[in-house]
């Protein structure tokens, strides 16, 4: 009989699914005797589940669904099932092979059974296996790894995408002595990939892709070299898409075009792989650790201007023995083991032979021209009448794909023979010369110039000005920077759309918004034209002003209701923001650079660009240039640098920066600035574990904030003072934190609402108001789960860990602290007070459980996925 819903275990439980592989085949083979096999299989499974404390929740045909209160018991049951099935003497010499999936998650009741994604995940894990195989989720593995049955070991199978699940699941297999341990690949979807969408059809290049793929069977680094416009990037993307199914850990594309600083290559690669900077580790170390066990393909696109970072490529290849790298570059990297594959232009027709339909169709260059021409004129076709002209165009353009695309875009207004005639006048000598010489680059440049010169003057001006954008722009940005108040006499969108029609600009959609971007070769040409433009200086000034305004407007929104969308907008514009900061340093405009960097620091903090942010701020604040900047602007710069240093857990650097801000505020008589600096400096003793000094400083900053009528700073001081007082058992903490929370709710400050809720919940639990505290922390987590604000979630988890530790639930406390450590590393930042008392929690756990058991519990927490950690702590808060 199925147990009723009130008798089912809740909280963290472990689900087990099983079914017979090839049951239809067995039925056909055994006929009437299949019922006997099915009944005996059912008896063995039920007995094995029951013997290990499992509840069989239901059967359907040859499948079972069961629940356990511990991961170890579920694994023991799975092992028992497989051993007993293997030992059974089945009729007709058949072999009954059962696949089993095990996953640990939240036991949420719905109706008479369990509901939710964790049940679904367990079923998908089982479906991915093969007969005789037991697959575990990462959550189950973490909880049971230290207590496996005798004769059982674990085999790591890596991440796999399973049907209907958004994120890859890291799977492990139980290897059971005496039973089959070798199975086919897991039945997963394609490996995880991060490749850009192809916006246009891909033409030809089958031979090149096959040849590079063959090279990668033995070579681990292949550089696709050649001049701009030959299609290196398109070949690399198509190659990666073709090879992705053969790479167990997927294929990833890293766009380096918008970077100007080689130091940013490693963080950019890390982000493409889904990694963020960690507090106490160099990002290259994280990359090495990530790549060491994985077999993946990485495309590094547009490397030629970042050759100073080529040693990084060698370093990563040495760290990851199964890593394959494809580089696109106008020049080779000159690394050991590098294979160069020269990307030649597209195949051309033989003009000495008959240009019949078959000959034209064999030419990749003509096929590309026809494809792109049909995009602007669906009626276009290569015919006997225009075939000679089309062939002449492709030959004149030396088979360069980008040049051919530019020419093909003109069929809307010109016939092929007219295009050829104009090209012959424009390129009288450029299409000759040895293969691979700079002539081809001249051909491409001239083709871009030809297309550019066919534009009306206003469109030429918009084209040149658009080249100032790094990483593309929105229509709004183009209007402000390129055509303010329609000074060019045309609508900006119409001008940009015309450039898209002529293949000089590419269109895409990101976050529901149109975005326009130039290919790098075209942008290089555009920047040359911009430099020659009398309006270049004003265009740069408008570009700087636009992104300074964007960042300044977003600064307050990064903690408000628009937090998520504002973070996304700044990340999409990060290349432009970097370009402005770099230009400020180059031109000595330190004041503007400091204004921009000061506005961006919370973006850098929340999105994991901490070290980059510190680098910009330190460069901008470096004497002597910075000494000529207004003290108030320098003060804001030091406040930003102090905030970045704080989140990087560097107490000395934090103190230096905030001291400098305090000094500058005093020099100019900025009492509000002095009050803010005093508040910030109060966190330095917190970092160093001096609670008494922190309390003293926060009390001083609270009075200072009141004296300068800064209600926001009053609320912040109350909030931080409240949590510090709670650590000493002072019950005034609750009133202070409640006052702060009321202020933040009234002002709509979403970041500080959720943060203060976490602090208030922690304080209430410290002071014995456990239920109220749990409610506050739960509300905080619900708010921040949407924003993915991991530091705040981590702070709530740390508070619950303290409560579990004080209640003697040391294993739960240590698991939570392990999860907090993982969240802390994933966000690239430490939350204020996030780990306060963590040493006490860990020390108490070690004393109660012993070092080995404590280490296992911490490891279990560290291995939790984000959703698993949230479910785990929410379950504890409900108890």
Brief write-up:
The protein is an alpha/beta fold and 879 residues long. It is built from 39 helices and 16 strands.
Overview of the structural elements:
This protein has 879 residues and is an alpha/beta fold. The chain folds into six domains: 5-176, Nucleotide cyclase, GGDEF domain (Alpha-Beta Plaits, 2-Layer Sandwich); 193-342, Rossmann fold, CATH 3.40.50.300; 357-452; 455-533, Winged helix-like DNA-binding domain superfamily/Winged helix DNA-binding domain (Arc Repressor Mutant, subunit A); 543-669, Serine Threonine Protein Phosphatase 5, Tetratricopeptide repeat; 782-878, no CATH class. 57% of the residues lie in helices and 11% in strands. It contains 39 helices and 16 strands. Strands 1, 2, 3, 4, 5, 6, 7 and 8 form an eight-stranded mixed beta sheet that branches. The chain has a six-stranded parallel beta sheet with strand order 9-11-12-13-10-14, with helices on both faces. Strands 15-16 form a two-stranded antiparallel ribbon. Helix 10 links the parallel strand 12 and strand 13. It is flat. 50% of the residues are buried.
């Amino acid at each position: 009989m199925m147990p009723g819903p009130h008798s089912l275990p809740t909280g963290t439980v472990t689900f087990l699914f099983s079914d017979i592989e090839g049951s239809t085949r067995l039925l056909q083979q055994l006929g009437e005797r299949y019922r006997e096999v099915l009944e005996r299989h059912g008896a063995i499974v039920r007995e094995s589940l029951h013997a290990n404390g499992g509840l069989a929740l239901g059967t359907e045909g040859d499948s079972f669904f069961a629940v356990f209160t511990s991961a170890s018991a579920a694994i023991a049951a799975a092992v028992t099932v497989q051993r007993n099935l293997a030992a059974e003497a089945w009729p007709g010499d058949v072999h009954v092979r059962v696949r089993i999936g095990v996953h640990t998650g939240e036991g949420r009741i719905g109706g008479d059974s369990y509901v939710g994604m964790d049940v679904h995940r367990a079923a998908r894990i089982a479906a991915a296996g093969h007969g005789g195989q037991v697959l575990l989720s990462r959550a189950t593995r973490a909880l049971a790894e230290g207590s496996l049955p005798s004769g059982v070991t674990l085999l790591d199978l890596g991440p796999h995408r399973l049907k209907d699940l958004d994120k890859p699941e890291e799977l492990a297999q139980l290897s059971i002595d005496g039973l089959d341990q070798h199975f086919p690949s897991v039945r997963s979807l394609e490996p995880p990939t991060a490749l850009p969408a192809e916006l246009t059809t891909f033409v030809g290049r089958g031979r090149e892709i096959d040849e590079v793929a063959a090279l990668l069977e033995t070579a681990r680094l292949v550089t696709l070299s050649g001049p701009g416009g030959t299609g290196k990037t398109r070949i690399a993307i198509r190659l990666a898409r073709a090879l992705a199914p053969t790479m167990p850990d997927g294929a990833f594309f890293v766009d380096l075009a918008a970077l100007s600083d080689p130091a940013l290559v490693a963080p950019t690669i890390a982000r493409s792989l889904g990694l963020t900077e960690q507090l106490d580790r160099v990002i290259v170390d994280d990359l090495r650790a990530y790549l060491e066990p994985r077999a993946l393909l990485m495309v590094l696109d547009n490397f030629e201007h970042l050759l100073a970072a080529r040693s990084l490529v060698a370093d990563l290849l040495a760290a990851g023995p199964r890593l394959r790298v494809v580089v696109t570059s106008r020049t080779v990297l000159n690394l050991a083991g590098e294979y160069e594959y020269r990307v030649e232009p597209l195949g051309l027709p033989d003009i000495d032979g008959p240009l019949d339909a078959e000959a034209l169709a064999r030419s990749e260059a003509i096929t590309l021209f026809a494809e792109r021409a049909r995009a602007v004129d669906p009626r276009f076709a290569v015919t006997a009448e225009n075939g000679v002209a089309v062939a002449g165009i492709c030959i004149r353009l030396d088979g360069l794909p980008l040049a051919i695309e530019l020419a093909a875009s003109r069929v809307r207004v010109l016939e092929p023979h007219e295009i050829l005639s104009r090209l012959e006048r424009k390129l009288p000598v450029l299409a000759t010369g040895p293969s691979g010489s700079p002539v081809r680059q001249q051909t491409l440049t001239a083709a871009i110039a030809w297309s550019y010169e066919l534009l009306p003057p206003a469109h030429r001006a918009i084209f040149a000005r658009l080249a100032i954008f790094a990483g593309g722009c929105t229509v709004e940005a183009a209007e402000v920077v390129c055509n303010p108040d329609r000074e060019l006499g045309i609508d900006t969108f119409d001008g940009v759309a015309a450039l898209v029609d002529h293949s000089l600009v590419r269109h895409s959609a990101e976050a529901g918004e149109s975005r326009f971007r130039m290919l790098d070769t075209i942008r290089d040409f555009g920047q040359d034209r911009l430099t020659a433009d009398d309006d270049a200086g004003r265009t740069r000034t408008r570009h700087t002003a636009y992104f300074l305004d964007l960042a300044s407007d977003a600064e307050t929104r990064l903690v408000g209701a628009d937090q998520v969308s504002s973070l996304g907008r700044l990340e999409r514009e990060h290349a432009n923001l970097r370009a402005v900061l770099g230009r400020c340093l180059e031109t000595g405009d330190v004041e503007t650079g400091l204004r921009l960097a000061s506005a961006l620091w919370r973006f850098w903090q929340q999105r994991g660009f901490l070290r980059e942010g510190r680098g910009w701020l330190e460069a901008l604040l470096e004497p002597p240039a910075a000494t000529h900047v207004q003290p108030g602007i320098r003060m804001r710069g030091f406040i930003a640098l102090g905030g970045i240093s704080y989140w990087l857990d560097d107490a000395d650097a934090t103190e230096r920066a905030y001291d400098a801000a305090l000094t500058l505020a005093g020099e100019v008589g900025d009492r509000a600035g002095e009050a803010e600096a005093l508040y910030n400096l109060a966190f330095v003793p917190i970092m160093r574990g001096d609670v008494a000094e922190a309390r003293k400083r926060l009390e001083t900053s609270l009075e200072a904030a009141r004296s300068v009528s800064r209600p926001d700073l009053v609320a912040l001081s109350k909030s931080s003072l409240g949590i510090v007082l709670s650590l000493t058992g002072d019950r005034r903490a609750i009133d202070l934190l409640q006052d702060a929370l009321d202020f933040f709710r009234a002002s709509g400050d979403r970041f500080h609402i959720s943060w203060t809720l976490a602090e208030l919940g922690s304080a209430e639990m410290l002071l014995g108001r456990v239920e109220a505290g749990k409610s506050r922390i739960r509300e905080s987590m619900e708010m921040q789960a949407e924003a993915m604000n991991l530091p705040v979630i981590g702070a709530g988890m740390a508070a619950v860990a303290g409560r579990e530790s004080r209640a003697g639930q040391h294993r739960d406390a240590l698991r939570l602290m392990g999860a907090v450590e993982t969240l802390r590393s994933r966000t690239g930042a430490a939350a204020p007070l996030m780990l306060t008392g963590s040493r006490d929690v860990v020390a108490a756990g070690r004393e109660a459980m012993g070092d080995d058991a404590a280490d296992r519990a911490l490891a279990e927490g560290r291995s939790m996925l984000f959703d698993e950690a949230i479910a785990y702590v929410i379950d504890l808060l409900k108890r």
